[in-house]
Amino acid sequence: MDAAEFRRRGKEMVDYVADYLENIEKRQVYPDVEPGYLRSLIPEEAPEEAESYEDVFKDIERVIMPGVTHWHSPYFYAYFPTANSFPAMLADMLCGAIGCIGFSWAASPACTELETVMLDWLGKMLKLPEDFLAGTEGRGGGVIQGTASEATLIALLAARSKIVKLIQADHPDRSETHIISKLVAYSSDQAHSSVERAGLIGGLRMKKIPTDNKFSVRGDALQKVLEEDRATGLIPFFFCATLGTTPSCAFDCVTELGPICNAEKIWMHIDAAYAGSAFICPEFRPLLNGIEFADSFNFNPHKWLLVNFDCSAISYVISHLISLQHWQIPLGRRFRSLKIWFVFRMYGLKGLQAYIRKHVGLAKEFESLVRADQRFEISADVVLGLVCFRLKGSNELNETLLKRINNARKIHLVPCQLAGKFVLRFAVCARTTESRHVQEPETDALTCHASKLFNVFNHIFILCFSHLNTHSTS
Amino acid sequence: MDAAEFRRRGKEMVDYVADYLENIEKRQVYPDVEPGYLRSLIPEEAPEEAESYEDVFKDIERVIMPGVTHWHSPYFYAYFPTANSFPAMLADMLCGAIGCIGFSWAASPACTELETVMLDWLGKMLKLPEDFLAGTEGRGGGVIQGTASEATLIALLAARSKIVKLIQADHPDRSETHIISKLVAYSSDQAHSSVERAGLIGGLRMKKIPTDNKFSVRGDALQKVLEEDRATGLIPFFFCATLGTTPSCAFDCVTELGPICNAEKIWMHIDAAYAGSAFICPEFRPLLNGIEFADSFNFNPHKWLLVNFDCSAISYVISHLISLQHWQIPLGRRFRSLKIWFVFRMYGLKGLQAYIRKHVGLAKEFESLVRADQRFEISADVVLGLVCFRLKGSNELNETLLKRINNARKIHLVPCQLAGKFVLRFAVCARTTESRHVQEPETDALTCHASKLFNVFNHIFILCFSHLNTHSTS
């Protein structure tokens, strides 16, 4: 394919992408395929001879789309959102064309420099303490990782290096292996599985701190475990606080935890993968109070800030590191900061704030629908865009409800476990109508979306009702 | 930005991308900017209000392009190639629109399944042993990683788990920490820095095996170190063989090393990040002989197989792992296999082979230019697309030559150290004329490129000559 054909095919693809996203709600949100469906639809080997683009293009609808879970459908309420915006897609096209591998400044100065400045933009939007900013001669700074999993691992490894160095300064005779064998890291019992995995990868002992009835780690809970562990000769060195847990969007109490970590010389990393984006709104910024005690902070603009995956931002307080290649696992890196630059400029801070607020508003609206129905209960505080709810009654009842909801294929939800209870998670995910709303605040996009929400609830209601009938007669 | 505006802006961007790549050789390959250049060109904070797309678009040329190292310029001969093709860019647009996060089968069945089948396509193209293929009930399979760094780390961690399990089966009393403290992993002294970093991340002892005069690890060299280490109570468990080293594209002798690793129960991982793509040509496939002894194999289609970054393929012999999320560091993943699918179908195996052969041919041509000039010497066997060369004489002389070459900004090269000598690396990188050549084999694209090569050599020649004069009179 030469440049001339790319001009033609690229424009067709732009239209295909626009069509896909404009009409996504007509597609079934969750696919009907069975595991292994795809292999039989395509040849077993790559073709010897080149095929025509028409043949490849045709196969998007024949082979791919039947097996896609449509994350950007307005009927998708599963997991947490993943971002998808037109400005980010335009930036990604440019990123692909430049196709540089920014593993050092010289490998592409613009790639390294825009990333540094964009992480400062992000830090300022979140009102991070000065220490987290690079500036022209700052003591901190940030870098884009692929995912929060990588960010947690990097923070854990940085903390491991720091504590080993610190201990060896006082005890030059103690080997690194010996010190590492005594280390212990902590996180909430609600923390994402990737935190535990980071410990496994780094070969480090990791313990979970029990949470209170709001699913939040409190200072006294950490203090208790620290004392027990110190008494047995272990060396606490790392605490991963979560702001906005995956199951219920709960917040660890970092204003209590931070001073303890600082006093005990424990690296405090804050994982705000989902919730972090909301901190750009003044009314949600207090949720980040205590950040001044943290050593590193991570959140995913690719979740809720309209920057397409992958774009996970980590900021550090003080870095002794010089080159970006010491800040991450992979050596090579794409020019991902272009996405942040395009999105932030095309939406503006106000547009991004409006987007967050709209999602939170929709969650609150769904919450009130649930509360208005006596058969349901809300399972955790609704703080941002996630509503955890269930039918009053057994786990079995709720498992059946979820199965019916997902089998009906009209909307898509995933569950969680909260204090032993099977709970349904309703996460506001789709941007589909959001961009229009941001751009044309006078339209009735919000109203449209709200009425969609009633449909969703109605759908759950019908499934629930038919189930309860079945249940009572069985 | 709504879908209607995206249709317009997307098509403009397609044209911008096509223009950029069609005219890339008119841009200076390496930028003139000084560190910190970008910060002063843009505001210190994200804008409050949304900006117009025109303003953002204008800034691509004002802010970004002056700081770009143009990896796809035909004057770029630095590092190793990174792929950039039109079919891959089209697939990436589709990937962005679908925007799924494939962390499990249910999260997007098509994403998981196409990746599995594409890794089988790759494996078959390379004629990997059956054990590396997933098939419908295979014992192996592959997964896409971001970079070879991640692949090496994953292989090392898999090997670490395996040896710990194996030892604990015989000695249930030995703790994991104790076992890990005795483990030792190996690689070539020519191995990429990421191999050493993988050891640091995993908290594992790592040693470098000395290479022979071809910069290749031989069986006896490994055997010697193994015996020494076993004698001191260490437990060898992992060897990372490199096929196509970064400095000189040397090949470890895996036909000698493999049987040793198998006999000693050492996990052999093969890192063929750059060279792996060439193994799709029957004439280069013998370089992979010995693969039958390996436990895992990695190469980067994003280097030399026309699939844009990031796309690093790792294949395993036997996997006890069920979900893709256990095969990698990050949990989330983009729909990267679309790029492989588009590229392999649009080029066909023959087109991809022609592309590899053309690059190797160009390297051979450059080699003969160097050999024809008595002042130069070739520093390592030219096997694929990399030529290591230098002026006969001191390191200082060659450092000055490289500085002059890069300061002249006409072409871009990077150096390496080989056996204490400062050496210039000439890597054939650009696809710029390749795609045309593949698509229209009757054109004179090759001739064009060859004449460009003479220009490059002429450029080096002139710089070298003026230097030698200066040198002899000083």
Sequence-ordered SSE layout with sheet pairings:
The structure is a homodimer.
Chain A: H1 3-22, H2 53-64, H3 86-98, H4 109-125, E1 141-145, H5 148-170, H6 176-182, E2 183-188, H7 193-201, E3 205-209, H8 219-231, E4 235-242, H9 254-263, E5 267-271, E6 296-299, H10 301-304, E7 312-316, H11 337-371, E8 376-378, E9 386-391, H12 395-407, E10 414-418, E11 421-427, H13 434-439, H14 445-473
Parallel strand pairs in A: 2-3, 2-4, 4-5, 5-6
Antiparallel strand pairs in A: 1-7, 6-7, 8-9, 9-11, 10-11
Helix pairs in contact in A: 3-11, 4-11, 5-7, 8-9, 11-14, 12-14
Protein name (chains A, B): Aromatic-L-amino-acid decarboxylase
Organism (chains A, B): Sinocyclocheilus grahami (Dianchi golden-line fish)
Family (chains A, B): Belongs to the group II decarboxylase family.
Describe the structure.
The structure is a homodimer. With about 475 residues, chain A is of the alpha/beta class. Chain A has three domains: about 160 residues, Aspartate Aminotransferase, domain 1, CATH 3.90.1150; about 30 residues, no CATH class; about 240 residues, Aspartate Aminotransferase, domain 2. Chain A contains 14 helices and eleven strands. In chain A, the strands form two sheets. In chain A, strands 1-7-6-5-4-2-3 form a seven-stranded mixed β-sheet, with helices on both faces. The first copy, chain A, has a four-stranded antiparallel β-sheet with strand order 8-9-11-10. The longest helix of chain A is centred in the last third of the chain and has 35 residues. Chain A starts with a helix and ends with a helix. In chain A, about 55% of the residues are buried. Chains A and B meet through helix 1, helix 2, helix 3, helix 4 and helix 5 of A and helix 1, helix 2, helix 3, helix 4 and helix 5 of B. Chains A, B: Homodimer. Chains A, B: InterPro entries: Aromatic_deC, PyrdxlP-dep_de-COase, PyrdxlP-dep_Trfase, PyrdxlP-dep_Trfase_major, PyrdxlP-dep_Trfase_small. Chains A, B: It comes from Sinocyclocheilus grahami (Dianchi golden-line fish). Chains A, B: Belongs to the group II decarboxylase family.
